Amino acid sequence: MQLSKSTTAGERDRRCSTVRYRANEEIYTQGGKTDRLYRLREGAVRSARFNSEGRRQVGNFYYPGDVFGLETEPEHQYGVEALTDCVVESISSSSGSEDEIATLAEVTRQQLRKVSEHLVLLGRKTAREKVALFLLSYAARNPDADVELPMNRQDIADYLGLSVETVSRTLTLLQEESVVAFPAARRFRVTRWDVLQRMAT
Amino acid sequence: MQLSKSTTAGERDRRCSTVRYRANEEIYTQGGKTDRLYRLREGAVRSARFNSEGRRQVGNFYYPGDVFGLETEPEHQYGVEALTDCVVESISSSSGSEDEIATLAEVTRQQLRKVSEHLVLLGRKTAREKVALFLLSYAARNPDADVELPMNRQDIADYLGLSVETVSRTLTLLQEESVVAFPAARRFRVTRWDVLQRMAT
DNA sequence: CGCAGGATTGAAGGTGATCAAAGCATGTGG
DNA sequence: CCACATGCTTTGATCACCTTCAATCCTGCG
User: Fold this and answer.
1) B106 shares its domain with B20
2) Beta B36-42 vs B67-68: how paired, if at all?
């Protein structure tokens, strides 16, 4: 998958293109055709689906280097929106050379890994375990300094299958127990890795 | 993946083999090396993992024709056990011709689909929704006659992230509402598809 | 400085977990 | 063939946790 052959914006129908999105902009819609693959260059995005009662389930968060847009059905089960301003490359997924197919398998594998991790998260019983595991896996990308969260509480809640309030309360508790510190709502640092790890088990 | 080149039992270290397992027998262990792929010929199996507190999470149920054993990590995150007596073919997954790799991609895709469906299930909020969706997707394989469940209540509970008692109570309710009928604990028939479908959304 | 959306906190209620016991089915041995 | 043992399922009672609804508090930004 040669996502690096970037062209200018506005050529979405071409084989390969690079497009910028502003925060909260939609990259593709739930229900649309699954005919393209996307690689995130800069920023962060979120995939989410709405069930018929209007409840939202966040599928995944993607970060620079991640490929998204791969699904097993011909129509997108999840829509994707930009969490922050971001730069996205995309190609038509039907334009397959042998080389690309080989990488497609790798992308599928990556996606399977992501979904499997999410499954473990949702399988956890208590809110503490879920939140702890979420913070842990997010903080892992930056073990030393403070980490900036691109998503809001609602996104986290819908990702973990919890209510916003429960997420908020749990974060407050973890702070009171000095397990994590939140200098701002969207920025945190793990202060007690051992405790957090034990919680998430 | 030529899982059809069966040989006799007892040649597990060979390239391809067919083995019979009795109900409750272990096919492979959580933590073992992920070096083989399995195709279920007859019977039903269950994949499950234990977290460090001893809680069990059922990953999936597999039925004749399904391929299992594919995982993204070098060590099995899930162990697999026979639910009923069954016949299993397996091959070394490292013995890859081009042809086999092409099919490996397809297996990965199938697995991704299964895991994604499970994710939707676990994302559901209420026990009713979960149980309804489980029955629905299981009954889909046999729309007319009664369906025999190869797994017990505990398996269902661990698959849905619920307690056995909640599963049992929910099934009782669904029976009282004449949505499903259980002539025996392990055999059921959907009597009101529309209602069940609406529950599962 | 003031506004708006997000985040937090509070109170009340519901839903599912847990603990405990009883009911059923299957299989074994007397 | 019946009695009993065993394991699975169901039911009951209580409790903890999470959700919901509501209000207040931030904080980032114009």
Assistant:
1) yes
2) antiparallel
The pLDDT tens digits of the residues spanning B90-144 come to 988 776 555 666 688 899 999 999 999 999 999 988 999 999 999 999 999 888 8
- B166 closest-nt by C1' vs CA: C16
Residue from the list A52, A115, A123 with its beta carbon closest to the beta carbon of B116: A115
Q: In what order do the strands lie in the sheet with A86-92?
A: A16-21, A86-92, A36-42, A67-68
Top residue of A47, A122, A198 to mutate, by most chain B CBs within 10 Å, is A122
Q: Least CB-CB distance to B108: which of A53, A73, A109?
A: A109
Tens digits of residue pLDDT in A69-120:
999 999 999 999 999 999 999 988 776 555 666 688 899 999 999 999 999 9
The single-letter code of the amino acid at B152 is N
Domain match, A108 and A129 both? no
**A107 shares a domain with A85:** yes
Structure tokens at B51: 């977290």
Residues B32 and B77 in one domain: yes
pTM: 0.91
What CATH number does residue B177 fall under?
Answer: 1.10.10.10
* B11: confidence class by pLDDT, cuts 50, 70, 90: very low
Nucleotides of C under 7 A from a protein CB: 6-11, 15-20, 25-26
Token pair 């309710």 in the structure block, residue: B173
Q: Quick check: A170 and A144 in contact, CB under 8 A?
A: no
Q: Residues 158-187 of A near strand C (Cβ < 7 Å)?
A: 164-165, 167-169, 171-172, 182, 185-186
Mean predicted lDDT score pLDDT of chain A: 90
The alpha carbon of residue A19 and the mean position of all alpha carbons in its chain are separated, in whole angstroms, by 19
Percent of chain B with pLDDT over 90: 77
Q: Which two tokens stand for residue B162?
A: 């619920």
Separation of alpha carbons B196 and B142, rounded Å = 15
Among the partner-chain residues A73, A109, A201, the one whose CB lies closest to the CB of B72 is: A109
Question: How high is the pLDDT of residue B142?
Answer: 83
CB proximity A72 to B under 8 Å: yes
Which strand (E) or helix (H) includes residue A101?
helix A98-123
